[in-house]
Design goal:
The protein is of the alpha/beta class. 30% of the residues lie in helices and 28% in strands. The protein folds into two domains: 59 residues, no CATH class; 197 residues, no CATH class. A hairpin with an 8-residue loop joins strand 8 and strand 9. The chain is globular, with a radius of gyration of 18 Å. The termini are far apart. Bound molecules: adenosine monophosphate (AMP). The site of adenosine monophosphate has 18 residues, from strand 2, helix 5 and strand 11.
């Protein structure tokens, strides 16, 4: 990629509530079209037109960028969101997350994880054993940014996802976000389902399984969604962890395995 790189972030709100956000790393020449895309996204959001749109652009210091590989992608086919959540809970358990912590995350995401019962702007931080919520601001959560694909990895990913019928912004962006989360020291797993009412898919990410999608983790039409990052129990270095998620620039220059969907087999 040409240098320097810039972090470009968009945050849109309506009636004082978070509506949409996006974060990319970009060369100078790509900044304008990216900003235009982000404005379009905020104005054309399915949950309403943005009233306030903030775009911020900051140069990223050259020597700080780390180059890493994306996690592998798997899809397990489930019949409905109840089965999807059970399957997701099974994978989280295998990653060392306790049933209590899983219940905390799923209950918060299903009922709106922010104090006003809406979706948060960012992610919850949850102790993987006690289930205690640790993010300093429960309305905002922690917003991961400064991660992206190199141009070549972007093209390879698009081709690979096309062959699986999965080349859409939801999957591309979530895979990159989960990829950064999985490189974060102290995080053992992530759970996500979208707050877009017509997008029912979600995923669990963990070091062992990579990025595992389920086509159904919530009912169609549901506007509440969220993300939970599960932190290894014990000493939490919260300031360092939050600083890494928000500020450490990461470029994915290799894609992982992109596996064909397979039916979820109920574990006994
Ligand atoms: P989305 O997958 O964009 O529909 O987002 C689903 C939920 O994930 C949102 O309601 C936020 O709570 C959270 N979220 C979205 N983007 C980020 C991000 N960059 N960092 C942390 N959490 C996020």
């Amino acid at each position: 990629m040409n240098r320097p790189l810039y972090s470009i972030r968009m945050q849109a709100s309506r009636n004082g509530h978070h509506l949409s956000g996006a974060e990319r790393l970009s060369t100078a020449i790509e900044l304008e079209p990216l900003a235009a895309d982000m404005v379009q996204r905020a104005l054309g959001h399915m949950r309403g037109r943005a009233e306030t749109i903030q775009i911020s652009i900051e140069e990223v210091a050259e020597g700080q960028i780390d180059y890493v590989a994306l996690p592998d992608l798997r899809t397990y086919l489930v019949d409905n969101y109840g089965q999807g959540r059970q399957a997701a809970a099974g994978l989280l358990c295998q990653a060392g997350v306790s049933p209590l912590a899983i219940d905390t995350a799923m209950a918060a995401m299903a009922s709106g994880a922010a104090p006003d019962g809406r979706s948060m702007r960012g992610a919850m931080l949850i102790d993987a054993v006690s289930g205690r919520r640790l993010e300093p601001d429960q309305a905002r959560g922690v917003r991961v940014s400064r991660m992206d694909l190199t141009e070549q990895a972007r093209q390879e990913l698009a081709l690979g996802l096309q062959s699986l019928g999965l080349d859409n912004a939801h999957v591309r962006e979530a895979l990159v976000l989960a990829g950064k989360v999985l490189t974060t020291p102290g995080i053992v797993a992530e759970l996500c389902w979208s707050d877009d009412p017509d997008y029912t898919a979600g995923y669990v990410a963990s070091a062992h399984q990579g990025y595992v999608r389920f086509p159904h983790l919530k009912p169609l039409g549901e506007e509440r969604g969220g993300r939970a990052f599960f932190l290894a129990a014990g000493q939490h270095k919260l300031p360092e962890l939050i600083n890494y998620l928000q500020y450490r620039p990461l470029l994915f220059d290799r894609i992982g395995q992109l596996n064909r969907p397979q039916p979820w087999v109920v574990q006994s």
